[in-house]
Design a protein that fits this description.
Strand 2 and strand 3 form a beta hairpin. This protein has 4 domains: 94 residues, Nucleic acid-binding proteins (OB fold (Dihydrolipoamide Acetyltransferase, E2P)), CATH 2.40.50; 133 residues, Rossmann fold; 57 residues; 40 residues, no CATH class. Helices cover 49% and strands 18% of the residues. With 446 residues, the chain is of the alpha/beta class. The strands form 3 sheets. A 5-stranded mixed beta barrel has the order 1-2-3-5-4. Bidirectionally degrades single-stranded DNA into large acid-insoluble oligonucleotides, which are then degraded further into small acid-soluble oligonucleotides. One of its GO terms (molecular function) is exodeoxyribonuclease VII activity. Heterooligomer composed of large and small subunits. InterPro entries: Exonuc_VII_L, Exonuc_VII_lsu_C, OB-fold_nuc-bd_dom.
Length: 446
């Protein structure tokens, strides 16, 4: 026993020594238990508790290791955890620092199922999606004859579609005998389908249960048998949350046996209501059509005349048209004869030769007048042009230059008006009354 006068340790020192003892004394180990209180904060670490019937152990799976855990960690899963026992010094919490997490027991079974599911999906076993006839001509139900599933299916079919032809193929739906029986039944039905083409849909179903109860429907060989079935297959195994390999391999999946029956056949009450609506619509349409046709018949009857009456009226119209045509023809002939007579008299009064001679005289006279007018016009224009030339010369700068003046321009052609605008040595052009001179500025004078 330590004495009272021995130096006291701090809480941090005690927790540090405890952590060292735990880590060196126990080391790394595997622990199996049930997951509880799984927490995933934003840091990426995973905190959880492993428990069994009489104890529990807090665990921490840090982010660097959590990313290597393939299966999801959910409360209730049974797992095996590899790690080292340690202590979180700030709070003094005893915990297991996890390095790896594996499924244990049922968890291992589910992990194997998940691997099988991925392999079958990669092979295309879950690619069936053939449409089912609705309603089927002959429904073949593979299930237990004493289970609740067949009672639910038959009850729904009786309520929705009493005309459905159903054949029950009794098979065990759990246990070791169920898988061979289901596969054998599928093979037999596919062989019989060639003899009886009326069989067109297979329903594989059973009620809910535990994972062990439904495990037969996760068999790989059964899934492949469903995939290779020539007859379309609907699977309805378990409850809504259950999904087996048989469900995935089937052409259509239903969440429950009752839901499968509802998908397979229409509701007769809906069809009857639809038929009543169509009957009322057909009656209204037919009556409206009859009314329209009756009105059209009355209209045609009012327009209908006896053929004899029509012929008499057409003959009378023909006679009137013939008489009008004869009168019009006679009148037109008379008018044309009168017009011809008038033209002949005009031609006799004014023969063409005389008209040509008169036109020649008029042309000669017009030519003489045209020549005189042109000569007179040219004379006036010459006089006007001479006057304009005289006016232009009076105001032309060339006339000023002719009197001894000159225009100075620089190299750009700009007129130099002031001596201040030039520089000594600058070359200028002097334009005279006749010709140009190139000059150079020697100096400027005020």
């Amino acid at each position: 026993m330590p004495r009272s006068d021995d130096p006291a340790l701090s809480v941090s020192e005690v927790n540090r020594r405890a952590r060292q003892l735990l880590e060196s004394g126990i080391g790394e180990l595997w622990v199996e238990g049930e997951l509880s209180g799984v927490s995933r904060p934003a840091s990426g670490h995973i905190y959880f508790t492993l428990k069994d019937a009489s104890a529990q152990l807090r665990c921490a799976l840090f982010r660097t290791r959590a990313r290597f855990v393939a299966a999801p960690m959910r409360d209730g899963d049974r797992v095996k955890v590899r790690g080292r026992v340690s202590l979180f010094e700030p709070r003094g919490d005893y915990q297991l620092i996890a390095e790896a997490v594996q499924a244990a027991g049922e968890g291992e079974l589910l992990a194997a199922l998940e691997r099988l599911k991925q392999r079958l999906a990669a092979e295309g076993v879950f690619a069936n999606a053939r449409p089912l006839p609705c309603p089927p001509r002959h429904l073949l139900v593979l299930t237990s004859p004493t289970g609740a599933a067949i009672r639910d299916v038959l009850a729904v079919l009786a309520a929705r579609w009493p005309l459905a032809q159903v054949t029950l193929i009794p098979v065990p739906v759990q246990g070791h005998e169920s898988v061979p029986a289901l596969i054998a039944a599928l093979g037999l039905l596919n062989r019989q389908q060639t003899l009886d083409p009326g069989q067109d849909v297979i329903l594989i179903t059973r009620g809910g249960g535990s994972l062990e109860d439904l495990w037969a429907f996760n068999d790989e060989n059964l899934a492949r048998a469903i995939f290779h079935s020539r007859l379309p297959v609907m699977s309805a195994v378990g409850h809504e949350v259950d999904t087996t390999l048989s469900d995935l391999a089937a052409d259509v999946r239903a969440p429950t046996p009752s839901a499968a029956a509802e998908q397979l056949v229409p509701d007769r009450h809906d069809l009857l209501r639809g038929l009543d609506s169509l009957e009322r619509q057909l009656t209204r349409t037919t009556q409206a059509r009859l009314n329209r046709e009756a009105q059209r018949l009355d209209h045609l009857r009012a327009r209908l005349r006896h053929p004899g009456e029509v012929l008499v009226r057409q003959r009378r119209m023909l006679d009137e048209v013939d008489a009008r045509l004869s009168r019009a023809l006679k009148r037109r002939i008379g008018e044309e004869c009168y017009r011809l007579d008038q033209l002949q008299r005009r031609l006799s009064a004014r023969p063409p030769r005389r008209e040509v001679e008169l036109a020649g005289k008029r042309l000669a006279s017009a030519g003489a007048r045209l020549g005189q007018a042109m000569q007179h016009g040219l004379t006036r224009q010459h006089e006007r042009l001479a006057g304009l030339v005289r006016q232009l010369q009076a105001v032309s700068p060339l006339a000023v230059l002719g009197r001894g003046y000159a225009i100075l321009q620089d190299d750009s052609g700009k007129v130099v008006r002031r001596a201040a605008d030039t520089q000594p040595g600058q070359a200028l052009t002097a334009r005279l009354g006749e010709g140009k001179l190139k000059v150079e500025v020697k100096r400027r004078l005020k």
